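hey can u check if this looks right to u? its 198 residues, i copy pasted from the old doc so theres a chance i mangled smth
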Amino acid sequence: MEDIVDLKVMEDANVIAGHKHLKNTTVEWVSVMEVPVENFVRKHEFVLTTGIGCADDPILFEKFVQDVIQSGASALTISTGRHILNVPERVVEIAEESDFILIEIPWKIRFSDIIQEVIDAINRENEWEREKAEQLRQKLTDCVLSGGSLKDILELLHHNINIPVAISDQRQIVRANYEFDPEIIKVLNGHTQGEIKN
């Protein structure tokens, strides 16, 4: 979300709630939504709205914002100056209470321009992820072909994904690990009672 707020098209945008969540909020898609939300917004979606239909009904607008928040959306951007002149303080409070990102933009900014730039940014990020995955695949292949051990493979994997990793056989016996919790390994190997949850 931080990258989206930094886009040129968003230079006149004002983040009015959820500032501290910009860096860690994922955006997978962008859409335009007006009332009712129902089940039309998916998780990690960046939602744009004019607030049409809510202009004379602040309670309906609050409900709309709550529905967007409950949908799992990443953020809501409200175009102000036409249907919603100013974002009501109660709506800002609802967003803050929910740790939700709320942004206002001037009416003059076209949604089509925002959508294009956001989709371009998402595509760039997806391409970067694909390139990273391909580089890792090549490094792992090189490691195996050059006689690397399971420990070498896990070390390489760990340095690229930054989470503990382990390899187990078909009997769930852990054969190698890298910074994996020893207590979990004991449970997996049947040496300690416990339950592993996914």
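Residues 111-145 form the longest helix (35 residues).
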